[in-house]
Write a structure and sequence with these properties.
Elements lengths: L3 H5 L2 E2 L5 E2 L8 E2 H18 L3 H4 L5 H13 L6 E3 L3 H15 L5 E5 L4 H14 L4 E5 L4 H4 L4 E7 L11 H10 L3 E5 L11 H4 L3 E4 L14 E4 L43 H11 L7 H22 L4 E2 L11 E5 L3 H10 L2 E2 L1 E3 L3 E5 L7 H16 L16
The chain binds pyridoxal-5'-phosphate.
The site of pyridoxal-5'-phosphate (PLP) has 13 residues, from helix 5 and helix 6.
Length: 397
């Protein structure tokens, strides 16, 4: 049984804050702060450029990729770190399309995160080969998989509603129709058990600043199934993905296996923070995390519905069909969220009208859920959100 009181002590949560936004930006792991300070002083400061070999900087994208691999069911040597998630979506989709060259349709859904759709639109346009992006409702994805589809590109957990796709079933359908499957695990990694191997995903990508607590702008990961490792062509063919970067050849040759998905110089300071953040998962059973996350989400839904009649559930009621987040709708959702944040309950707002809350058993328990409901109910029954100061939109919501 996972000891969540141990994991809770690993994070810095400011006093007076109930943090229900770890689905968007995980809190600071105390060890990450210490690791970065040490990295700056001893590695960058003390070793200077010798750190690339001496402190293992060069291998970090691989060694940390292997740690992420353990959390997503990927074997050693199939996950590598680098760049942002949007860029990894581009890499994965471009490589997948090349592996299925006769077909022209990329199938996705309207619950996907816009950046994934934008990246697909940009890529298809620059390919200039008549590809189309077909976007259907999440419930219609299965039926829309046919023999025109080159690549099924989905995000497992819907960023707004928390609705969970069946990765294994949909990948199976895609393969039966001759398509490849690219999965975005942004809201899954660190939130629920994932097994890219059992699901037979072709490519998977994800970020590390949400449930993995790697810090703002932490680097993303990409997984390539072993069967594609030596055939997938990296479109972002940078020097660190070359077979011999320090031979400085004029022509590109892809590196062996997952190394080819590297592009340029890795963000070493950010990787140090992430490496320390991943220590929190030692001794954590993801099945325990899942069970507790469903319990916390169910409790939140039940209490909010009992006490805040004006809020409409925007997430699946069935825990098995939901990721680790819950959202409610209200026309004044933005102001309600600002009023909550002013009282120390931090979630976020997603247009047009959703207030969203992430439940992260590593550092959130029943007491926080009940505390948040108490404040939310107070704000709703007394209309405390109805103030000009809560209606001014900031750049980041
Ligand atoms: C958070 C998220 C992103 C963000 O991409 P970045 O490049 O890291 O800004 C992309 N896709 C999905 C599905 C996300 O949830």
């Amino acid at each position: 049984m996972t000891d969540f009181s141990r994991t809770r002590a690993l994070f810095h949560i400011p006093a007076g804050t109930i943090y229900l936004d770890g689905n968007s930006l995980g809190p600071l792991p105390i060890a990450a702060k210490e690791r970065v300070a040490r990295m700056m002083a001893e590695e960058w400061g003390g070793q200077l450029i010798k750190g690339w070999n001496g402190a293992g900087w060069f291998m970090q994208p691989r060694t940390i990729g292997n740690r992420i691999g353990k959390l997503i069911g990927a074997p050693e040597g199939t996950v590598v770190m680098g760049d942002t998630l949007s860029i990894k979506v581009h890499q994965a989709l471009a490589s997948a399309l090349e592996l299925n060259p006769e077909r022209k349709v990329v199938l996705s859904d309207s619950g996907n995160f816009p950046s994934d759709l934008y990246i697909a639109q940009g890529l298809l346009k620059s390919l200039g080969r008549g590809h189309v992006l077909k976007v259907v409702e999440p419930e219609e994805v299965g039926a829309a998989i046919d023999e025109s589809v080159a690549v099924l590109m989905l995000t497992e957990v819907d960023y707004r509603t928390g609705r969970l796709h069946d990765m294994k079933a949909l990948t199976g359908r895609a393969h039966a129709a001759g398509a490849l499957a690219v999965w975005d695990l942004a809201h899954s990694a660190g939130a629920l058990p994932i097994d890219v191997t059992a699901a037979a995903a072709d490519f998977a990508v994800g970020c590390t600043y949400k449930y993995l607590n790697g810090g703002p702008g932490a680097p993303a990961f990409i997984y390539v199934a072993p069967r594609h490792l030596e055939t997938a062509r990296p479109v972002l063919s940078g020097w660190l993905g070359h077979a011999a970067p320090f031979a400085f050849d004029l022509d590109y040759r892809p590196g062996a296996g997952i190394d080819r998905m590297r592009c340029g110089t890795p963000p070493v300071i950010a990787l140090a923070a992430l490496d320390a953040a991943l220590d929190a998962w030692e001794g954590v059973d993801m099945a325990d995390v899942r069970r507790q996350s469903i319990r916390l989400c169910d409790l939140f839904i039940r209490e909010v519905e009992a006490r805040c009649a004006d809020l409409t559930l925007n997430s699946p009621r069935d825990g098995a069909a939901r990721g680790s987040q819950v959202s409610f709708r209200h026309p004044e959702g933005y102001a309600i969220m600002q009023a909550l944040i002013a009282r120390g309950v931090i979630g976020d707002f997603r247009a047009p009208d959703a207030i969203r809350f992430g439940f992260t058993p590593l550092y959130i328990g029943e007491a926080e859920v009940m505390g948040a409901v108490e404040i939310l109910a107070d704000i709703m029954t007394k209309r405390l959100w109805d103030k000009a100061e809560f209606k001014r939109k900031a750049a980041v919501t």
